[in-house]
Design brief:
The chain has 151 residues and is mostly beta strands. It has helices at residues 28-35, 107-114; strands at 3-11, 14-22, 39-42, 45-55, 58-68, 83-88, 98-104, 118-121, 125-135, 140-146.
């Protein structure tokens, strides 16, 4: 794997490149972490992952444009401040309430959280993961969680 490319599905079997990462620019752990995220935020637009593919040495993420990204409460940029994860409520009516933030030493550490259906949210406890996101605009991973008892 030498590059990771996001393509937008424009319909009728038409795909346009959105963004590309090279293995020389980001590590393999970040490549894998990005591939596990349900959503991708870039330039104020939200994209949903619809397909994760490989073609030779290229890994391809096909996304669908969902529209403008809705901001959550207490959003903060982490650009230049290391790798972070935010845990948030998945509910728009709660303004995607912030539950916790944690720094991570590497994208490899982020992978542990992205692979789980249930995560331990610091100072909150165990929660069920509903979706995951890489917010390119703010430089943060976001894990949306709800109570284990919720349906």
């Amino acid at each position: 794997m030498k590059q990771l490319t996001y393509y937008i599905d424009k319909g009728n079997s038409h795909y346009e490149p959105l963004y590309e990462y090279s293995i020389s620019n980001v590590g393999i752990d970040e490549f894998y972490a990005r591939q596990l995220c349900t959503y991708f935020i870039m330039r104020g637009t939200q994209y949903e992952l619809i397909s994760n593919e490989m073609y030779g040495e290229e890994d391809i993420l096909v996304v669908k444009e969902m529209g403008r990204n809705l901001s959550g409460e207490d959003e903060k940029s982490f650009r230049g401040a290391g790798i972070h994860i935010e845990f948030r409520s998945p509910y728009e009516q709660e303004n995607f309430r912030l539950l916790a933030r944690i720094p991570c030493p590497s994208h490899f550490d982020v992978l542990r959280f992205l692979l789980k259906d249930v995560v331990d949210v610091p100072l909150v406890g165990q929660k069920l993961v509903t979706s995951t996101e890489i917010d390119e605009d703010r430089g943060v991973y976001v894990i949306y969680v709800k109570d284990l008892e919720e349906e």
